[in-house]
Design brief:
The complex is a heterodimer of chains A (222) and B (320).
Chain A: H1 2-13, H2 22-58, H3 62-65, H4 79-86, H5 89-118, H6 126-135, H7 141-154, H8 161-184, H9 189-197, H10 202-214
Helix pairs in contact in A: 1-2, 5-8, 6-8, 9-10
Chain B: H1 2-7, H2 30-64, E1 67-68, E2 78-79, H3 83-90, H4 94-123, H5 130-142, H6 145-156, H7 163-170, H8 178-181, H9 183-208, H10 212-220, H11 225-253, H12 257-263, H13 272-282, H14 286-319
Helix pairs in contact in B: 2-14, 3-14, 4-9, 4-11, 5-9, 6-9, 6-12, 9-11, 9-12, 11-14, 13-14
The chains are: A mainly alpha (222), B mainly alpha (320).
Chain lengths: 222, 320
Amino acid sequence: MSITAESTRSQTTESAQPERSGSSRFTRRKVTGYFVTLLTWVLVFLFFFPVLWMIVTSFKNEGQAASFPPEFFFTPTFDRYAAVFERGMGLYLLNSLFVAVLSTVVVMLLAIPAAYALSVRPIGRWQDGLFFFISTKFLPVAASIIPVFLLLRSVNLLDNLWSLGLLYLGINLPLAVWMMRSFFAEVPRAVVEAAQIDGASYNRELWRVSLRSSLPAPRPPR
Amino acid sequence: MVDTLETTPTFDKPLGGRMGRKAAKVPLKGQELSERKFARKLIFPALVVAILITQIPFIATIYYSFQDWNLARSEERSFAGFENYVAVITNGAFLPSVWATVRIVGGSMILSLLLGLLVAVLLDRNFKGQALARTLLITPFLVMPAAAALIWKYSLLEVNTGMVNWGLGLIGIDPVAWNTDHPALTIVFTLTWQYTPFMMLILLAGLQSQSAEVLEAADVDGASSLQTFRFMTLPHLRTYAELAILLGTVFMIQVFDPVNIMTNGAGDTKTIAYLLYERAFIGQQIGEAAAYGVITVIVTIVIATAALRTMFKIFTEEAR
């Protein structure tokens, strides 16, 4: 970034004059651009490598997976996948999917209105409200799991996907409230006010205006 | 409900700077009053659910922390007063675990925040394959913590067959016995790898919410990219960085899977969360474990608040 900085400045300060030596600056800028892009891809590769390696290893047999130096070229095998699904992986995946989808839907239905009441139209003492939500995450799961286990056992709800979904709801609700709040906080007030003047009901204002304008949108190039 | 709110500490500074002005006390007109009521209704369901699901176990934990209760002898359960708390503080394991937690969480936090900022800035440019690069960068955050710990411990950091040592060997560096010689570092690596995408996502949202016109104006006025970054982008990112730091700290303090899988608490890696697990599920001391839990909540509040305040300071100074 810092290298581009210089060329940007010299270009803009002199832009009033006709560009005489502009082409060489242009190439310099382009070269730094390529360099930064290259750096980006190197970092991307480094971060993705562990996942990539996990995927590659999953197509090896046990002997190849443990060999050193690592084998980069081998005949891929699906044996390990077959073995995993024979042990009931399909059901586990379905369980996870069910619990994740269920809890996410409920979390968002609860979190969006709450985040709205904490940012765009803050209720009194909204900071306390916000802090309350995050403070529910301060108790380590290892500590709260004991009372949860004893409670669920007493009402015969152990080994139940619905109770798992309920737990996920408690775990993820504070996070969702905080994330949604910080997105809502960036919605320009003018947009909300314009919607009000146009006669949007509070409900409509919440779901349409704020939500739509807080969706991540690509920014035009600088 | 009101009681619960009142027991939580108050930030005297607004969390998200821009909303602060709404706190001014103005007499409410009829319509505004009804809007306020509606806003209360909006937050009510989430509040009730959060209180029911999280506060009941928490209150139970506080109750257990005053009980002398070992699961192995569960019939001999009795009131213990502050005995559990005294035991926690005097048994010599607690302070080292706080220190281990601060080192591991602090190190991973700083590394992942800086890397996250770097990557966010790099991804905020226009280049070919931008969307692909972003997707690939997010994947570490989507890997389950247990799986991440296994990948790092066995595939990457293993002394004889790990890819990291293989890579180091290519440039002539002798293999390092990461897992046995630098256990704390292996956890920091794993956490940094997992949380950099998280920081990057939040900071990237911040970068992209900057108004293009303002940045253009700065460019026209002759500000260098570095100046723009330092005096406009960084202060703008403040709210986002606060969010990232607070959530990151809270998540990382709870970290359990990497410690359990990679080190079992050996070599200065016994964090509070892991110590608590040891006491509760290996020692079966429900009362003592609950006391650790209550103290952890207090420590977390202190650390999270301190982290937030430090960030406030740094950013206000930089904004000047």
